[in-house]
Amino acid sequence: MDKDPLTDAPDPDAAHEAIRSMDVRGAAHIGRTAAASLGRLARDAGVADDALRARLEAAGRHLIAARPTAVSLRNAVNLTLDGLREEGASDLRGAVVDRAVRYIDSSEAARDKIAAHGARAVPDGGAVLTHCHSSLAVAVLVKAHEEGKRFRVFTDETRPWWQGHITSTQLAEAGIDVTLIVDSAAHFIMDAEDVGLVLTGADTVTADGSLYNKVGTHAVALGAHSLKIPFMTACETHKFSPYSLQGEHPEVEERDPEEVLAGRTLKGVKVRNPVFDRTPPTLVQRYITEEGPVAPQEVEHTIQRRFGNMEGWL
Ligand code: RI2
Fold it and tell me: Is 90 exceeded by the pLDDT of residue 106?
């Protein structure tokens, strides 16, 4: 029997803190953690329906505030809290729990489908370049390797959180030939090595087809474009932003400069730490989703089809 996904879920306050501090990171993981914490609260809070509704909505708002850029967090909260708005739901608690479990299951199922779709785009021979750590990009590469494709991977290290180290370790554990590079070496490596694909994850994809992902992604995409290397992004449609249909674009998170300084003091120097950037749709060849590859110009239609009534959404 599959393990109940809510059993080990943190309460929403603990989930907020884990997401804010990056103990829980990666847009897909963040979304599933938020959904699980709301499901757990709904299941365990022994209060009447009105009080439960108020507590869940407050917890949802607090979770969304933990990190502003990855839309999977806000989507996870809203899709879970849709249980509160379910027409004719006699069991509010059960409806929210059910939505939370459905969100988690669909996110996990999406990963397997994305791996299968994405593996087709991975070159047999040559190399792939990645940026930051994306669980979905890793799933694609591992699947391609399991299917017998042989390729090398160059991984951008991605300061200041070094998520490229996670990518490198996971790929090496899967038996893939992996080489870690500093981010500023990306263009040199794309030019010097036989890189046939750049593959990243996504934090948010907006209706105009723009990609919001870990800072540095835009520069990598520009480099790939100049060298005519396909640039693709592995992402579940939970990363698509229905809010952007009304022109809302994600806030780019700026974190503590201390993360950049890492304990050093540079007298008279200002430090900034923006952690995401926007890559324009013209530089993205395909979003590899659970539904298959989606071109940037098809994102708006996918959002309209994928997200229904948003009434009452936070
Ligand atoms: P998956 C990460 O952000 C990276 O930007 C990565 O591309 C994205 O989340 C998606 O990751 P952070 O949370 O959902 O490390 O593919 O700041 O795992």
Answer: yes
